[in-house]
Amino acid sequence: MNEIIEKIRNKKGFVCDMDGVIYHGNKLLPGVKEFVDWLIRENKKFLFLTNSSERTRKELQEKLARMGIVVDEKVFYTSALATATFLAAQKPNGSAYIIGEAGLINALYNVGYTMNNYNPDYVVVGETMSYSYEKITHAINLVLKGAKLIGTNPDISGPVENGIVPATKALVAPIEMSTGKKAYFVGKPNPLMMRIALKKLECTTEETIIIGDRMDTDIIAGIESEIDTCLVLSGISTRETINNFPYRPHFVLEGVKDIIEF
User: Is 258 among the residues known to form the active site?
Assistant: First the structure.
């Protein structure tokens, strides 16, 4: 175990998921503050890379600050920002019908997209608390008229303090089933997210490790990008569910606290 921890600690760049790694809902997970303090003290390069599209960077920064962790907002990167980057490259200054929260709306607005409920280029879906039958019905008919369907991430569910909540793939499913059209998902494990992370860290694949709680997004994203992976058991995946997948993480820890307690 000591050898494993030492290999992790020797990495130069750390790509950390947030939900299930840093916090559950509004509850900071054990050892996280000490872990972030260690990253800063050791001059490690780190990025909080989340598939959640609800919050802006500023909101994520303020959420961590309320939990006692003060970091620059530049260390955050979300699937909403990745989706905006992707759409701006595909169709500059396009338009979208959005089912999502401020993080997604702001990200698209900031790359020159306009909101369009009539004949948008894209229907874009992210996590939202205002999911409704009316919005889904409208999205279905826009897709049938030719709008392309985009999901910010392929997560089916996400962890919160008292259990799990449906995530983007679950919210997109009714639109896919009703239209016969498949969504394109931008977030992890899409390698686009990992390439962006490496560029922001200015680290090579060999120098970097991704720490996440999900086999189906975080771990496969690292494997497909040739980045070492560390699965923490503080979120979705368990030691038992690891065996449900045809690939394995390089390292398995109970949580990021293990890196510090060593």
Answer: no
Concerning whether 155 is annotated as a catalytic residue, the answer is: no
Amino acid identity for residue 195 in this structure: R
pLDDT at 89: 95
Q: What is the pLDDT of residues 100-141, one digit of tens each?
A: 999 999 999 999 999 999 999 999 999 999 999 999 999 999
Which band of pLDDT confidence, cut at 50, 70 and 90, is reported for residue 262? low
Q: Which CATH number fits domain 81-185: 3.40.50.1000, 3.50.50.60, 3.10.310.70, 3.40.190.10?
A: 3.40.50.1000
Cα–Cα distances in angstroms (integers) from residue 98 to residues 79, 105, 136, 219, 236, in the given order: 14, 7, 11, 29, 27
Q: Whole-model pTM?
A: 0.89
- Beta-bridged to residue 165, according to DSSP, are 158
Catalytic residue among 19, 121, 213, 216: 19
Q: Which of 17, 121, 216, 258 is catalytic?
A: 17
User: What integer best gives the mean pLDDT of the chain?
Assistant: 94
Please state, in angstroms and rounded to a whole number, the distance separating the CA atoms of residues 155 and 171.
Answer: 10
Q: Which CATH superfamily is domain 2-51+188-261 in?
A: HAD superfamily/HAD-like (3.40.50.1000)
Q: Which regions of the chain carry the CATH code 3.40.50.1000?
A: 2-51+188-261, 81-185
